[in-house]
Amino acid sequence: MKTLKIAVLPGDGIGPEIVKQALQVTQVVCEKFDHRLEYQEGIVGACAIDATGSPYPDETHKLCMQSDAVLFGAIGDPKFDNDPKAKVRPEQGLLKMRKDLGLYANIRPVSTFPQLLHKSPLRADLVDGADFMCIRELTGGLYFGRPQGRSEDGNTAYDTCVYTREEVERILHLAYNFAGKRRKKVTVVDKANVLASSRLWRQIAQEIATKYPDVETEYMFVDNAAMRIIQWPKSFDVLVTENLFGDILTDEASVITGSLGMLPSASIGLHTSVFEPIHGSYPQAAGKNIANPLATILSAALMFEYAFHMPEEAACIRKAVTASMEAGIVTEDIADGAKAYSTDEVGSWIVEYIGQERK
Ligand code: IPM
Ligand code: MG
Q1: Please, which of 231, 260, 301, 302 could form a disulfide with 266 given CB 3.0 to 4.6 Å?
Q2: For 1-108+265-359, which CATH class?
């Protein structure tokens, strides 16, 4: 019997409600496949600032480091958003966690669900069958480059985009390895016509491409990529890019599938991997039992796949999620006028489905 040790960080807003469902799904999968689950909760984000003054307390970091995987909800609280003088923000907790755990790759699979095609802002024939993977560099670029700040008189501000060869090489290798297991195409997205950091990316990509002769490489400027994602999403297989470009393009890519409430993500790197939905803390819905738990439940599936190398367990979760949509047991964001179920009801239905299904 294998013991799976996970850190559970619900965070703020709807985080606790959706993580609760994903945790119950994780528990039933462990029962079904005879794994022992050990989990411990930690605090992060606004709730951690309130409790300790830090958005990512040392204790939470220790817990993550001692675990095999982290299941993460969301962070953010509107009380911090319009205060330009706030010294500490919940988002800093997320950035610190990524940096301290060395999570240099954020993987966001974008795939469509037949039941949701009509919800996409794009024509169904454009998105039907779209299936690509965005790989975003997560610990470099403008998010972390120094210097960053203001001039003494406060009237000039600057951020710095820095990338080293090592940082670019490791994320590109990861992208090529994923592509090798998929449809064998990598799109390297940059702004090499303007930015020095992008020219380094492109130079290194050209070197690395020769090491993966069976994978096709396509180079694309980020503005063009933004257009192509909505114009012809099916043309992508693995898209790899730097931190800020990836932040922007993955929000864009997420909506083509019909709901932001559906997409999971995995952040992997040097230490413990983190699995979280790509949506935020949705504070307006907090405590109302209406948030869609599917992105977090699908993040648990990614956790079984990437952290525990258990593809059958992951497939079992995905099958149950599909079944819930087919049965119409869904939250209001995707219910489409039909009866909407609560966060709890959707989670419980999936737990029960997994419990009853034959292995
Ligand atoms: C994301 C989020 C974060 C980011 C914020 C909350 C700091 O938008 O995970 O995409 O910009 O990376
Ligand atoms: Mg983002």
Answers
A1: 302
A2: alpha beta
Q: Please state whether the predicted TM-score (pTM) of the whole model is above 0.90.
A: yes
Specify the amino acid at residue 252. Answer: E
Which atom, in ligand 1's list, is nearest to the CA of 94? 7
Q: Mean pLDDT for the chain?
A: 96
Just list the catalytic residues. Answer: 143, 191, 223, 247, 251
Atom of ligand 1 nearest to the CA of 138: 12
Pairing verdict, β 185-190 and 69-74: unpaired
Give the CATH class of 131-255: alpha beta
Q: What is the DSSP letter of 304?
A: I
pLDDT given for residue 336 in this prediction? 84
Query: Do 80 and 86 touch, CB atoms closer than 8 A?
Result: yes
Residues 231-258: pLDDT tens digits? 999 999 999 999 999 999 998 998 888 8
Q: Is residue 85 predicted with pLDDT exceeding 90? A: no
Cα 10 → chain centroid:
15
* Residue nearest to ligand 1 atom 11, measured at CA: 247
